[in-house]
Amino acid sequence: MGSRGPRIRPVASLTHGRRPHASEPLCVTERTIDVSASSRWRRLATLRWHNILMIVVAHALAVVALFHFEWSALFVCAILYFWTACLGLTLGWHRLLSHGSFKAHPAVRYFLAASGSLALQNGPIEWVGVHRVHHAHTDEEEDPHTPLVQIAWAHIGWIFAPLPFDPRDFARDLERDRGIRIIDRCHWLFSIALAVALYAAGEWWNQVGVAWVLWGMAVRTVLVFHATWFVNSAAHTWGYRNFETNDNSRNLWWVAVLTFGEGWHNNHHAAHRCAAHGIRWWEFDLTYAIVRALERVGLATQVVHPPRTADMPTEPVKAPAIGR
């Protein structure tokens, strides 16, 4: 997989040659990935049992949580959903670590990286490496989670199968960061510490420690799981397009709501280094608003902004859903 420019033909330019360019590939190295779309499901003969165990246990405990409902536990779930999905995964692992959409103060960088670990989607180095392969080969045979195989594969099936490449080969910049390496190796400890803290705080609050753990850990984790997976599946299947990219990325409003802006996915694939994913007035992107707030107080620098005025088409491209 050689370092190359994006395989897109934009209807409109997001960056107009700004530097650093929003479409510039980040840390893609020369590697060979041996995978065929027709053989993906057969890779399930050797399963990634740690992923299966985590997903099954989280869903089972989320069902148990329904019998331990407390309004305070629901509030805890909502706060932690924002913390892990928005600050951890969307802002930290995706826009900062995967694409370098901005530079962050080291304290912010490591806080966001650790926050993403609370989503229980393995460590940041593997996550980033897989995501960069997805961008280098979007909806091609080498794409680890394209819905062109099946939408079920893109949503969850690929997580169970061994990867046909080593994600660390595509995240060497993170491997060189000692702080990120430590977070990556200890990512489970953050969730264990959070679970203990939730139980203690819940018991102190009103003897609702079990409810806080079930809702703050299991329910919240399951919700973040599926919100993340919908970007891979639904946002490559349904929705409209602002840009004629050589992939099947779509802008899908309800995925954008669940993921704090990630659902404007066609915009992202057209200029993947751009910190803003929403570019039309109705494409609200809370994560970009947070980036701009961090920039104002000096905690984010070198932000890859969209231009003030983009030569956008009058109407979005109406894209039919992928047939199944």
Produce a short descriptive summary.
With 324 residues, this protein is mainly α. The protein is 49% helix and 2% strand. The chain is built from twelve helices and four strands; from the N terminus they run βααβαααααααβαααβ.
Q: Strands, helices and their partners?
A:
Blueprint: E1 8-9, H1 49-65, H2 71-98, E2 103-104, H3 106-117, H4 124-136, H5 151-160, H6 172-175, H7 178-185, H8 187-206, H9 209-232, E3 244-245, H10 253-259, H11 265-270, H12 286-296, E4 300-301
Antiparallel strand pairs: 1-3, 2-4
Explain what this protein looks like in three dimensions.
- This protein has 324 residues and is an all-alpha fold.
- It has helices spanning 49-65, 71-98, 106-117, 124-136, 151-160, 172-175, 178-185, 187-206, 209-232, 253-259, 265-270, 286-296; strands at 8-9, 103-104, 244-245, 300-301.
- 49% of the residues lie in helices and 2% in strands.
- α1 (49-65) crosses α9 (209-232).
- It is globular.
**Radius of gyration from the alpha-carbon trace, in angstroms:** 19 Å
Query: What is the number of helical segments per DSSP (H or I, 4+ residues)?
Result: 12
For the secondary structure, the number of strands is 4
β-strand amount = under 5%
Largest sheet strand order: 1-3
* Mean pLDDT value: 85
Query: What is the N-to-C succession of helices and strands?
Result: EHHEHHHHHHHEHHHE
How much helical structure, as a percent, in the residues? 40-55%
Molecular shape:
globular
Structural class: mainly alpha
Contiguous runs where pLDDT drops below 50 for at least 5 residues: 1-38, 318-324
